[in-house]
Amino acid sequence: MYGVVILNYNSYNLTARLVLKLLEFKNIKKIVIVDNNSEDDFTNFVLKNNKDNKIKYFKLKTNGGYAAGNNVGLQYLHDEGLKIGFIANPDVYISEDTVDKIYKFLIKNQNYGVASCKRTIGKSGVTGQYWDLPTFKDCLLESIYSGRKNQDSKYKGYFERVWNDKTSEYYNVEVVGGAFFGCNLNILDKIGYLNERTFLWYEENILGYNLRKNGYKEALLLNCSYIHNHIRKRRGTNKHNIYLASKKVYCYDCLQISEWQKILLNFFDVWGLIESKFIYIITSLLK
User: Which of 253, 143, 241, 141 is nearest to 197 (CA)?
Assistant: First the structure.
């Protein structure tokens, strides 16, 4: 048996759709809706659909971001005695077969802290399947637009390799995407769950680093897949600030960069903020 955490922020219809789908799964014990202080209210929805007492609803008083919100659900599942938990964004489409395969993999392989699977996205379907832990050089380049585009192209290049591999059962990888994955709850409890100093972005990298640091692994299964129906929005200056702040947590806590590296990182971050503001203004004028 396993549980699934769905973090909601003004995505009522998507979250409700996913919950109703998950209720059909035979091996699911708990579905945890965590609302990050949005305008949505699931009280009536839960009363109507919670006949088997499988739904737990948390309405948070503050929006602490992806890590803090999902941690509420993961810790609840751990306290309920479950061994395996899943994080699923409201905009993912997952099958019972996919969830069961990841669940069985994690039960069988107790040294894996996290496992996910192949995924497609949007009209083309092409998206990153997994990626490597960023080096300091990567972190510098990801501050600016051209650097991020280069990294996106690199990891989207893994798409054909993953989808054309008909022989491998899974890959050992360093980081999987945070839209959907399964985790060993005892392992996450040992390493302190997701880093709540991040609001959005880079939480997967920090999780991957902490797992490796403590001797655990991540896997990408090739015998199943999911769809991430992600609607991208322009990042804008404010969102880029959030991204840079999360990246800084990774650089300081995981890479433990030196003082001169902090100065260099700050230079690239300022460059990226100016660039982001310029792009935002230009695209707004062209609308």
Answer: 253
Q: Where are the domains of the chain?
A: 2-286
Rounded to a whole number, what is the distance in angstroms from the first to the last CA of the chain? 49
Reported as a single tens digit per residue, the pLDDT across 188-217 is 999 999 999 999 999 999 999 999 999 999
Chain centroid offset of residue 276 CA: 23
Rounded (5°) CA angle 226-7-154: 45
Say how many CA atoms lie within 13 Å of 182 toward its Cβ: 31
Task: Please give the single-letter amino acid code of residue 168.
Answer: S
Beta bridge partners of 114: 183, 218
Whether 163 and 210 have beta carbons less than 8 Å apart is answered as no
Give the model's confidence band at 276: pLDDT under 50 very low, under 70 low, under 90 confident, else very high: confident
Q: Under a CB-based contact definition with an 8 Å cutoff, are residues 10 and 82 in contact?
A: no
Fold observed for domain 2-286: Spore Coat Polysaccharide Biosynthesis Protein SpsA; Chain A (3.90.550)
Coil, helix or strand at residue 118: strand
121 beta partners: 228
Phi and psi angles of residue 189, each rounded to the nearest 5 degrees, phi first: -65, -35
